[in-house]
């Protein structure tokens, strides 16, 4: 009887990821191929795209990979990139926010008028501008989540309304130049010229990743879950170190570490932690994956939606301040033009799905690098802006098509 009981004992299931790791490099290669066949492309297309862009423009111009050009790219991506991070949050809900360019513009206008015309401390003026943007986001979220007006309509109205408010706030002045060497002026123009700054940031980033990976692996093992082996963590850390210290070396060959890049990376890291490691982040993904299922799970859907629009508007305000710093002034047209479209395109090109429930804030960084690399490379060749718009539009369309095909492939593979 005992023999029968022993033979009938259930055999514990083996997680396939454990088998992959036991097979070493061959196992990871097989897993990578399986993901590609099932449409789980991740960041592979955008990384390959960045490499291709760099190789092509360097071969054509001979100047693309110079320290000065790469340093300029890190400056140009900060303002629109911060707006794009906010767009990632909205896209995770499966929605869109068309007002963020206008929110960036009116925020920069409020900050400039308060500090330059009314003598308010620049830090306080910037803080008031961000608070106004948070209120704008809450208003958008209220009409969307509580009243039931589609987000497209609410934010389209916001695009028009806040653009009008921007012009009203600026009044007859039209343009207000930044205070020389002031807070706003330094946002996009300050560099940590000590070489230790760039190398120190690289060391902190690599060490932070290593500690987080080791602690995460240990907690998973203690919970009986599959975890990355130390050898894999060491390899990933080594690759990150090469990238981080290579970037630090390149920046130090020019003017040093830009403050704008530090802020942008800090926002990306913090928001990535919020989305992946907090209950709030899981609620955002849950609402984006299915509103009714999230509501049945006890999630306050309305509050999640309102808070997401507040986050996106707040980040748009910060992005607007960086754009004002880069241009040297705040005016009635700040935030217009292709600012919003590039920010949305960056999030999508970087891998965030337009259909909700899938994406990460690193998408904003990767997507902005793609867009700005294309723009910078074409500028080096003297290509007109109209051609740049057409090429950026083609890249965006390609990213959306890839996202649609990926989703369809995953569904057919039983992973959608």
From TrEMBL:
Matching entries from CDD domains are given as:
TM_PBP1_transp_AraH_like
Q: Which domain of life is it from?
A: Bacteria
Bilayer-crossing residues are 41-61, 73-93, 100-117, 123-144, 151-170, 190-212, 233-251, 257-275, 302-324, 336-355, 362-380, 386-405
Query: Could you cite one Gene Ontology molecular function of this protein?
Result: transmembrane transporter activity
Alphabetized, the UniProt keywords read: Cell inner membrane, Cell membrane, Membrane, Sugar transport, Transmembrane, Transmembrane helix, Transport
According to its record, how does it sit in the membrane? Multi-pass membrane protein
Q: Which InterPro entries does the protein's record reference?
A: ABC_transp_permease (IPR001851)
Q: Which Pfam families match?
A: BPD_transp_2
A single GO CC term for this protein reads: plasma membrane
Q: Where in the cell is it found?
A: Cell membrane
| Physiological role | Part of the binding-protein-dependent transport system for D-xylose. Probably responsible for the translocation of the substrate across the membrane.
- Protein name (Swiss-Prot/TrEMBL): Xylose transport system permease protein XylH
* Organism of derivation: Kitasatospora kifunensis (Streptomyces kifunensis)
């Amino acid at each position: 009887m005992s023999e029968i009981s022993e033979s009938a004992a259930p055999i514990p299931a083996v997680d396939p990821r454990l088998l992959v790791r036991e097979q070493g490099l061959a196992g990871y290669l097989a897993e990578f191929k399986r993901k590609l066949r099932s449409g789980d492309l991740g960041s592979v297309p955008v990384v390959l795209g960045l490499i291709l862009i760099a190789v092509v423009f360097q071969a054509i111009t001979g100047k693309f990979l110079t320290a000065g050009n790469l340093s300029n790219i890190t400056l140009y991506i900060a303002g629109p990139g911060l707006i794009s991070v906010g767009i990632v949050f909205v896209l995770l809900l499966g929605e869109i926010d068309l007002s963020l360019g206008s929110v960036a513009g009116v925020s920069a206008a409020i900050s400039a008028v308060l500090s330059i015309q009314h003598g308010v401390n620049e830090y306080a003026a910037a803080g008031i501008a961000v608070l106004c943007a948070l209120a704008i986001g809450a208003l958008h979220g209220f009409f969307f989540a509580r009243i039931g007006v589609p987000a497209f309509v609410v934010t389209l109205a916001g695009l028009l309304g806040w653009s009008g408010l921007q012009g009203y706030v600026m009044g007859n002045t039209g343009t207000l130049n930044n205070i020389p060497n002031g807070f706003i002026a330094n946002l996009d123009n300050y560099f940590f010229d000590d070489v230790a700054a760039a190398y120190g940031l690289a060391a902190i980033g690599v060490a932070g990743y290593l500690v987080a990976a080791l602690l995460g692996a240990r907690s998973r093992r203690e919970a009986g879950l599959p975890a990355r082996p130390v050898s894999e963590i060491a390899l990933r850390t080594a690759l990150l170190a090469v990238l981080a210290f290579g970037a630090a070396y390149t920046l130090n060959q020019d003017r040093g570490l830009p403050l704008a890049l530090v802020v942008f990376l800090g926002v990306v890291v913090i928001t990535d932690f919020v989305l992946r490691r907090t209950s709030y982040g899981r609620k955002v993904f849950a609402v984006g994956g299915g509103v009714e299922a999230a509501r049945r799970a006890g999630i306050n859907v309305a509050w999640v939606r309102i808070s997401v629009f507040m986050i996106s508007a707040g980040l748009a305000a910060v992005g607007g301040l960086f754009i004002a710093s880069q241009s040297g002034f705040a005016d009635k047209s700040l935030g217009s033009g292709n600012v919003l479209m590039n920010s949305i395109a960056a999030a999508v090109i970087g891998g965030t799905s337009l259909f909700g429930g899938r994406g990460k804030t690193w998408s904003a960084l990767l997507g902005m690098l793609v867009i700005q690399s294309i723009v910078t490379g074409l500028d080096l060749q003297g290509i007109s802006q109209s051609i740049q718009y057409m090429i950026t539009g083609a890249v965006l369309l390609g990213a959306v098509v890839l996202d649609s095909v990926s989703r369809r492939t995953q569904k057919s593979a039983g992973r959608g």
